[in-house]
């Protein structure tokens, strides 16, 4: 229904009258609204979660705290108040405890930001948890009779049917294709109960199905699986294959266009990126016949029905994600978002493009279909003291700074707990990704992921005081901290981090601590602690890297250097169409600034580029592990490799194996190793007690709400 234009005039008149009334009863408040001298008191706009009792007008009976029906209308009111003031106005939008639902993102632009002195603050109340949720509640309906024959007796007795919103019913597919490290399109929707996301009905219920045969018939799309139920899948219109089709570091999701019982084969919509391997492992998803356990669902597009086997711990209601994002901050400055829970969204909870001085603090972000938050082309902005869990495609992405001029962006993610951050895209979806120039990951705790924890590209980043454990759990040839294929990506410092209990989990799997892959150069790895880490520092053919004053316990080989450009990977060096050469050509390596900052880079193509040179390993302590693995093609005279420091080399006895095996925290290292060893190695000054981020940061469970 369209409202009469006079209604808008009436609302404006009422707004002005209410502001005037507040001014009569509290002159200092009114002066702050209209630009008077008294500006010390912030204007707090309240947004109740109970929409039925809220209004859109300032309320004089609640301590002169304006009230708005929704967050969107609160922002409109804030703009009005700011326009009426001749001076900067301190405005706080405070959301009450409870659920605030969004179907579209809240968009903040340059019109919404504050100033350095008085930023716009959007926060949750200090009493209870204010939750922004991008989902809608589903309504029960009857189960279509056509589904009964495909379900087991047990499933028929357990499942429930829900009526789907039109946007979900009309979605062409229930998932999106994923290819290696490329971020996919937004997932069409996800389903949630109180315990978190549910999954499309899959086979097998856990793990992967082994391949029995491949039929690469020119298209490279046909394959067979041992135990596959081809007959039951034959008429499935939206079936998916998910997994590692060739390499255990390459994860894809691909639609299946045909299940052929006569051929005992499945046919993909497109061939896998690297083709099939003989030991590929995948699972099949979104088949009604496989809906056989709690927590699974199936969408029937024809009837507009969602069939769900509820989880006992989930409970009603059931919800489905709708909003693409919760906050889109575009070119804005001086905004703070604090003390909220953000959840159940198809993409990222927070998307920041451009702008400066945007701070996200004390926020819980969970159950996103994309990353938790992304910041692109902004400055002096970041994420701090947040709790991030159960994200679909990664944790936090920071991308900013100008590489040609080496101008830093000073973006940051600090003191955050980030776990279970790659539910959907399982490879190359790190908890923290740093791109550009001069960005920081400091003091974070990252855990529970199948692949990398932190990845970086670009220049002059700082990765320090992070604790990383229980990642790389379902992959091979990957690093907890990972980068690669760029001679120009220099200047990053990785220091004072605590990496522990990182080893390959599958048969033949191997992983790394810090992986300087495929000719990475100019990176410093200093003052870190590696405890029970496979291949702590791995230099894959690069140059000018430094491994200095690290402590490596039950971790081997401590430092690896190979010359892959001279053996199996020379094509990457010499092929001008590959990433290494293209990235080199894209940067002004002969400019004065680059030559001063990276003096060995300008002449790299005339300096035997396939050969690793000037890598340094010095002052590292190796306890119970092989110190070095230097491949034969690497000229040790071209590196600076110090005699390894071991207890026997220092002249002291090594701690007993049982004591090393019992070591769990960085802060206990001085006690377990002993001051004699650390003093002799000149490593007693490392900040061991500050490396245990899992202990230092608040113990917050993702299901408990805000970090406050």
UniProtKB/TrEMBL annotation:
Segments forming domain Right handed beta helix: 329-420, 431-565
InterPro entries: Beta_helix (IPR039448), PbH1 (IPR006626), Pectin_lyas_fold (IPR012334), Pectin_lyase_fold/virulence (IPR011050)
Protein species of origin: Candidatus Filomicrobium marinum
Record key words, sorted: Signal
Pfam families, per database record: Beta_helix (PF13229)
Signal sequence range: 1-30
Name recorded for this polypeptide: Right handed beta helix domain-containing protein
């Amino acid at each position: 229904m369209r409202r009469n234009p006079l209604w808008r005039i009436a609302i404006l008149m009422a707004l002005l009258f209410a502001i005037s009334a507040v001014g009569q009863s509290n002159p200092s408040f009114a002066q702050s609204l209209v630009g008077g001298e008294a500006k010390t008191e912030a204007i707090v706009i309240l947004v109740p979660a109970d929409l039925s009792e809220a209004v859109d007008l300032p309320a004089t009976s609640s301590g002169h705290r304006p009230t708005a029906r929704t967050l969107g209308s609160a922002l409109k009111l804030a703009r009005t108040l700011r326009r009426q003031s001749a001076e900067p106005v301190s405005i706080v939008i405070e959301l009450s405890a409870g659920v605030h639902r969004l179907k579209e993102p809240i968009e903040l632009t340059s019109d919404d930001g504050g100033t350095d002195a008085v930023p716009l603050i959007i926060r949750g109340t200090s009493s209870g948890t204010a939750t922004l949720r991008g989902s809608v509640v589903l309504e029960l309906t009857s189960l279509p009779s056509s589904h009964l024959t495909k379900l087991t007796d047990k499933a028929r007795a357990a499942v429930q049917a829900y009526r789907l919103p039109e946007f979900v019913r009309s979605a062409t597919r229930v998932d999106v294709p994923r290819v290696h490290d490329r971020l996919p399109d937004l997932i069409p929707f996800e389903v949630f109960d109180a315990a978190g996301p549910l999954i499309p009905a899959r086979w097998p219920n856990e793990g992967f199905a082994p391949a029995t045969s491949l039929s690469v018939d020119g298209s490279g799309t046909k394959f067979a699986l041992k135990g596959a139920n081809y007959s039951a899948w034959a008429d499935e219109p939206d079936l998916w294959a998910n997994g590692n089709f060739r390499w255990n570091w390459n994860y894809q999701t691909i639609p299946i266009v045909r299940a052929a019982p006569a051929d005992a084969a499945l046919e993909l919509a497109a061939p896998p990126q690297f083709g099939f391997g003989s030991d590929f492992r995948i699972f099949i998803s979104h088949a009604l016949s496989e809906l056989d356990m709690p927590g699974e669902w199936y969408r029937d597009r024809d009837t507009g029905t969602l069939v769900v086997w509820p989880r006992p711990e989930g409970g009603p209601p059931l919800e489905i994600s709708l909003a693409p994002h919760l906050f889109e901050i575009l070119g804005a400055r001086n905004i703070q978002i604090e003390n909220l829970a953000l959840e159940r969204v198809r993409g990222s909870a927070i998307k920041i493009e451009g702008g400066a001085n945007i701070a996200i603090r004390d926020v819980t972000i969970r159950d996103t279909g994309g990353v938790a938050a992304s910041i692109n082309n902004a400055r002096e902005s970041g994420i701090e003291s947040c709790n991030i869990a159960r994200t679909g495609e990664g944790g936090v992405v920071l991308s900013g700074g100008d590489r040609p001029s080496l101008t830093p962006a000073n973006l940051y993610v600090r003191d955050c707990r980030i776990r279970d951050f790659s539910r959907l895209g399982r490879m190359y979806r790190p908890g923290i990704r740093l791109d550009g120039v001069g960005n920081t990951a400091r003091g974070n705790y990252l855990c529970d992921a199948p692949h990398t924890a932190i990845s970086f590209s670009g220049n002059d980043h700082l990765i320090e005081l992070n604790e990383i454990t229980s990642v790389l759990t379902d992959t091979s040839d990957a690093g907890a901290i990972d980068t690669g294929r760029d001679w120009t990506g220099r200047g990053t410092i990785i220091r004072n981090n605590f990496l522990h209990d990182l080893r390959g989990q599958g048969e033949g799997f191997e992983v790394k601590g810090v992986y300087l892959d495929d000719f990475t150069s100019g990176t410093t790895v200093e003052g870190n602690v590696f405890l029970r880490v496979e291949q702590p520092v791995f230099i894959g053919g690069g140059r000018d890297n430094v491994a200095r004053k690290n402590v490596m316990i039950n971790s081997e080989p401590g430092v690896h250097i190979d010359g892959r450009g001279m053996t199996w990977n020379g094509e990457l060096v010499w092929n001008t169409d590959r990433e290494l050469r293209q990235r080199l050509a894209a940067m002004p390596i002969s400019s004065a600034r680059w030559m001063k900052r990276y003096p060995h880079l300008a002449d790299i193509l005339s300096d035997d580029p396939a050969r690793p040179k000037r890598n340094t390993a010095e002052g590292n302590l190796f306890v119970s592990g092989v110190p070095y693995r230097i491949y034969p093609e690497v000229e040790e005279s071209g590196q600076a490799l110090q005699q390894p420091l071991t207890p026997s080399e220092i002249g002291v006895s090594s701690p007993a194996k049982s004591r090393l095996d019992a070591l769990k925290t960085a802060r206990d290292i001085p006690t377990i190793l002993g001051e004699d060893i650390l003093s002799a190695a000149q490593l007693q000054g490392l900040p061991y007690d500050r490396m245990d981020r899992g202990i230092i940061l608040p113990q917050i469970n993702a299901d408990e709400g805000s970090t406050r």
